[in-house]
Amino acid sequence: MDHSCGQYRSPAPTPRATGQHPDKVMLINRDRIAYAGLLGAPKQRNLGSLTLYLSLAGPFRIRIEDGPWHTTRFAVIPPYLPHWVETDDRLIGVVMIEPEYIDPADLPASLAPGIRPLAHCDMADRLREAFSRLCGQTHLSTRDFDELFFGARLVTRPLDHRIAQVAERIRAEPCELHDAESSAGQAGLSFSRFLHLFANEVGVSYRRYRAWKRARALLPYVAQARNLTDVALELGYPDSTHFSHSIRSVYGLRPKDIFAGSRRLSVIVQPGAARPLTCAA
């Protein structure tokens, strides 16, 4: 994998006035993702992260569930909430925060879910400036990421230790099966009690959590020249059809479109954020 940034250039301090924007780059660690690049033409998206969208040039349009379209430069979408995003310039900035250890009540006001009015998008300017500093960040911890993008470390919350143990195993091995029965046994709980406690602690069902982590595991490899059937099997999907359907239901794009739009993307994978694609199907 090429982790270099090539001819990476910092944007001008006032990208809205100049029309400049960060080059195509994606940084991935276990808890955060920062992406500046092509949006494509996605259908409905349903990401498992707290997702921040910011304009890199002109404003973008966003719609949540069956609500109206809004034009903005910055929006924060809660995890697992269906939404649509469109932009005329084909570019978008995205910051994704894994939510299981984040208490929404402790988020700073600048990261509270919602669509910001066009006249009040200062956070978008800060995030664009942060993107300009990603080149060469080969050891950017979650704390360092938060300080770069948000100005301070986000407050974390503990999970029940039994659920945390299961969640960490899925995070570390997202392409393994991790069926609910074996995870309940790992936690020392009955099957029904485990499913209830997991959803209560993490905020989403065990099945959706596992599906999101597997779909997220695709992202470190999107700039590689890989056979998509091999990628599907190595990520743990039973076949390429299931792979395509699952990825499209999350990102609103087919895997082949994601790979096509990432050919000139600089992907910076932090230590521990990805493993070689050698998992059993």
From TrEMBL:
Pfam families: HTH_18
Ranges where the HTH araC/xylS-type domain occurs: 161-261
InterPro entries: HTH_AraC
GO molecular function: DNA-binding transcription factor activity; sequence-specific DNA binding
Name the UniProt record assigns to this protein: AraC family transcriptional regulator
Region of interest (Disordered), residue spans: 1-22
Taxonomy, superkingdom: Bacteria
